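User: Reviewer 2 asked us to show a designed sequence for the structure in our supplementary figure. I'm pasting the structure tokens here. Could you produce the per-position amino acids so we can include them in the response letter?
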């Protein structure tokens, strides 16, 4: 069972991102403030859940959260500032959109760029430890999946509907055959060295 809070006296927002390791598309992040009394037996790290479970949990999180928000950073911005900074920026943008200012931030991972004057705690594998971070991981993942499904309609040859823009064999073969799209992250190694594209 996931922990309900890190500090019972503070209004905490859990933060997580999705799509950091993908070859194309925006990186997404979510921030979620859950009530201290929130309970759910299924809630867990989004990577441990099925697509069906994530879709089931999303409206439950949105309806029960004190406040929640999802934000994204584009592939062009990722290329400009690098994926680590883009992940921090996506989280900052999500926190910006919260209707209530949290007193503390719980960040999934081991690094974060301070957000204004709000204290934060980095928690490695936090999405499998704290409810608010798990909730954020589910929102970030499901909103990014919806976004990739739309991009797939525009560029079906890359099979983003199934690979979600990760560097699968089929995705890399499509890059080799069709080249890159405006959504590809050009700062990433899209193909092995011997197959490098002329950009």
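Assistant: Here is a per-position design you can include in the supplement:
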């Amino acid at each position: 069972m996931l922990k309900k809070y890190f500090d019972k006296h503070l209004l905490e927002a859990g933060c997580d991102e999705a799509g950091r390791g993908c070859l194309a598309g925006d990186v997404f992040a979510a921030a979620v403030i859950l009530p201290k009394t929130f309970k759910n037996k299924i809630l867990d790290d989004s990577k441990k859940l099925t697509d069906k479970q994530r879709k089931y949990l999303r409206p439950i999180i949105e309806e029960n959260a004190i406040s929640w928000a999802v934000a994204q950073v584009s592939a062009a911005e990722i290329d400009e500032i690098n994926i680590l900074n883009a992940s921090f920026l996506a989280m900052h943008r999500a926190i910006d959109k919260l209707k209530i200012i949290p007193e503390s931030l719980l960040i999934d991972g081991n690094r974060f760029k301070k957000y204004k004057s709000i204290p934060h705690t980095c928690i490695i594998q936090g999405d499998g430890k704290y409810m608010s971070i798990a909730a954020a991981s589910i929102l970030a993942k499901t909103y990014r999946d919806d976004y990739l499904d739309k991009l797939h309609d525009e560029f079906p040859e890359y099979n983003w509907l199934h690979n979600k823009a990760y560097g699968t064999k089929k995705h890399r073969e499509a890059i080799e055959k069709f080249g890159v799209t405006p959504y590809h992250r050009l700062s990433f190694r899209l193909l092995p060295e011997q197959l490098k594209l002329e950009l």
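For the response letter, you might also mention the following. The chain has two domains: 12-153, 155-195. The beta strands are 12-18, 27-33, 67-73, 104-108, 120-123.
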